[in-house]
Amino acid sequence: MPDRATVEQIKNEIGRVHLMAVSKTRSLEEIMQAYEMGIRIFGENHVQEIVAKFSDGKPDDMEVHMIGHLQSNKVSKVVSLVDMIESVDSYSLLVKINNACEKIGKVMPVLLELNTSGEESKSGFDTEEELTDCLRKSSGLKNIVVKGLMTVGPVACPEDRKDELTRVAFRKLKILYDKCGLSVLSMGMSGDYAIAVEEGSTQVRIGTKIFGERVYD
Ligand SMILES: *Cc1c(COP(=O)(O)O)cnc(C)c1O
Predict the structure, then answer these.
(1) Degrees, nearest 5: CA angle 121-124-127
(2) Cα of 185 to ligand 1 centre, how many Å?
(3) Is the Cβ atom of 205 under 6 angstroms away from ligand 1?
(4) How far apart are alpha carbons 173 and 151 in whole angstroms?
(5) How does 183-194 read in b/e, with b if 16+ C-beta sit within 10 Å?
C-alpha cells in the first residue's frame, strides 16, 4: 500500500516538479490508493501489465506512461492504453508508434530516452547524435509529438561515486534538453530524485519509495 506521509514528503521536496508513481508489479487497488492521495501520473514498464490493469478504462485525469523498453511487436497493443511513451530508443520504433496511432486517430506524446551512463544493460539511444537525428526526423511523423527526454541514472557503479556519476549523467541530459528546446525532462527515481531535481528534472519517476520494495515472481 502506498504511504501517504511519504507521498506528502516527496511532494514537498520536489516542489513544482511532476510526480509519477511507478506502479509496475503493483495492483490496481494500490494504484487507486495512490490516486486518492493525489497522484495523477503512473508509470508501467510491461505491455502485458498495462493491458491487464487498464483495458477496462481509468479515471479521465489519470495518465499512464510507458517507461520500459517497448518491443515493436507490442506497439499496436499499447498505444490506445497509454498517454505517453517515455522510452523511445530508435527511429524505427517511433515510426511504428506513429503508424499504430494513425490507425486509431491518436497523436502520441513521446520522450526520447538516452543511455546517459553508457551501461550496456540499459536501454535508450547510445549517443546524443542518434537521439538528435531521430528528433529531427520525427517532425515528419504526424501522429507523434516529441515532448522531451528521459534517462535512468547509473545503476551498476561504485557506491562511493554514485552521487557524483548520477549528477554527471543528469547534467548531460539537461544540457541536451535545453539545446533541443523541449518541455519534459524525465529523470530521477527513488534513490536519486533529489539530485535530479537539483539538475533540472521536470518529472521524477518514483516506485519503491512510495509503494515499498517490489517483489517479482
Ligand atoms: C522501476 C523504474 C523506476 C522506479 O524505480 P524506483 O527505484 O523503484 O523508484 C523509474 N524509472 C524506470 C524507467 C523504471 O523502470
Answers:
(1) 105
(2) 15
(3) yes
(4) 8
(5) ebbbbbbeebbb
Helix 91-104 to helix 128-138 angle, to the nearest 10 degrees?
30
Query: What values do phi and psi take at 108, rounded to 5?
Result: -95, 125
Cα–Cα distances (Å) from 113 to 90, 173, 208, in that order, read 9, 10, 21
Burial-class residue 176 by CB neighbours within 10 Å (0-12, 13-18, 19+).
buried
The CB density around residue 213, as the number of other CB atoms within 10 Å, is 7
- What pLDDT, on a 0 to 100 scale, did the predictor assign at position 4? 95
Give the per-residue pLDDT at 117.
86
- Nearest-CA residue for ligand 1 atom 13 is 67
Ligand 1 in reach of 152 Cβ (< 6 A): yes
What is the reported pLDDT for 24? Answer: 97
Burial level of 121, CB count in 10 A (0-12/13-18/19+)? exposed
Nearest atom within ligand 1 for CA of residue 86? 13
Q: What is the pLDDT of residues 108-117, one digit of tens each?
A: 999 999 999 8
Residue bearing the CA closest to ligand 1, atom 12 = 67
Q: Is 45 in the pocket of ligand 1 (CB under 6 A)?
A: yes
